[in-house]
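Question thread 4412

I'm putting together a teaching handout and wanted feedback from people who do this every day. The idea is simple: show students a protein as raw sequence, then show them the structure tokens that encode its fold, then repeat with a second protein so they can compare. Below is the first pair exactly as I plan to print it.
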Amino acid sequence: MKSGPRASGSGGRVVLVGDDGLGVRVLQALRELGITVTAVCARPEAPFARAAREARVALIIGDPEHEETLREAGVEEASACGLLGDSDLANLHIALELLELAPRARVVLRLFNISLAGPIHGLLGDVVVLSATELAAPAFVEAA
């Protein structure tokens, strides 16, 4: 399935790689902004794949660590790629693939081990690293 609304303005198309609730929430937010999204998910039964089908966005089912899957998703033409999977190693592997396949795309990388952020910036350059743990910590402290 390769359909969905056109991107508005300068947002361009975004490729999201994920499988869980984070991918679902990011997909929903981007769609609300009118941004064209292509979703990549390894498991057709994953919440992210179900959400992509419900939102009627282009959905590629395949291993996102394989170059062919990323090419099928059109990462070469993407303005941004969100690597939102729950495996640091897989997200890093995909980010390295994107260095060659989509050197102009902005990359947002989900990591659980935030101590890797510094070395990643040195290796990958213009990458935004997000850590759910780091983002959630202030909310837990405030709630306590």
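The second pair follows. I'd like the answer to focus on this one:
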Amino acid sequence: QKALTEAAQSGDLTRVDELNHEIHRRINRAAGPSHLVTLLGVTARYAPRRFFGSITGWAGASAHDHGAIFDALLRKDPDVARTAMAGHIRHAGRLLAEHLREREEQ
């Protein structure tokens, strides 16, 4: 996460995408087998990682939102971790929707 934050601050969007993917992969694997992991794997095939770096605010959202998730994981508080992850997904979804809407208007 520290490396992701540094990459976001320096504007290295390729590195942000790589690290973000790795963070999510590790969290998903640690959670054990689930339908969500399968869904994310299938979805990721249709949205290449380098695509996300072009979304305004994406790098900053990853750097910012992950902090609450990691804090909850370190405290071993699954309810807070779940809430933080859901908030992160909603935030990322809003950024993606805005990006796609802007592209459509162009």
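Top answer:
Good format. For the second protein you could add a caption like this: The radius of gyration is 14 Å. The chain is about 80% helix and 0% strand.
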